[in-house]
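Severity: low
Component: inverse-folding endpoint
Summary: output formatting inconsistent between runs
Steps to reproduce: submit the following structure tokens with default settings.
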């Protein structure tokens, strides 16, 4: 599956169709891109977002009532407020922790770092200290120095982070060994039903057969 990265989603889509003859585009974080035509909108929504506020004070980009535009809302939590939304797909979320021994420093640069840290502890991993960076954090040598100093202060045996952060670290990860990577797995409770509903809607709206 070709992956296209670009600030302009519209032009990125045109490039994908021209170079790879793409018939289906899967967008990450595309619900608010009104310039783009979409045939199926999926919104991932934890229950805590119902207690959130709009930007710039909070995290929400639109009011919760905007979910009326969504074709499916995916949530790991039972949410009564979703009565007005379209289809609700429940998912099971699980953190897969490698067989790591000793106390580790857990760090990440994701949207909800607390969920990652809590998941590690629930899985039985011993955590000496936690460090949360901004979402999509671009790591540099100052961050590595900070983490190494923290390891020295706490006597931690190593580090653990997310798959996303492991990629963002790049070559810098070599300086944080031993470094373990935990994986987040999300599984739909009714995957076949969800896929069939999505493909049926896509065929009706786009005229294409998948």
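Observed output (run 2 of 3):
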């Amino acid at each position: 599956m070709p992956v296209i990265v670009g600030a302009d989603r519209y032009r990125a889509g045109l490039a994908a169709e021209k170079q790879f003859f793409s018939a289906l585009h899967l967008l990450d974080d595309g619900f608010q891109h009104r310039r783009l035509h979409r045939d199926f909108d999926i919104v991932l929504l934890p229950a805590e977002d119902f207690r959130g506020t709009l930007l710039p004070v909070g995290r929400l980009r639109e009011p919760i009532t905007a979910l009326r535009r969504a074709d499916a809302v995916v949530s790991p939590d039972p949410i009564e407020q979703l009565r007005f939304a379209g289809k609700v797909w429940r998912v099971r979320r699980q953190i897969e922790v490698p067989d790591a021994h000793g106390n580790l420093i857990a760090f990440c640069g994701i949207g909800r770092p607390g969920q990652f840290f809590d998941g590690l502890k629930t899985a039985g991993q011993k955590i000496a200290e936690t460090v949360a960076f901004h979402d999509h954090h671009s790591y540099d040598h100052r961050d590595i120095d900070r983490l190494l100093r923290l390891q020295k202060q706490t006597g931690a045996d190593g580090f653990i982070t997310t798959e996303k952060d492991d990629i963002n670290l790049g070559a810098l990860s070599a300086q944080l060994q031993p470094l373990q990577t935990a994986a987040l797995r999300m599984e739909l409770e009714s995957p076949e039903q969800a896929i069939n509903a999505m493909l049926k809607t896509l065929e009706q709206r786009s005229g294409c057969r998948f």
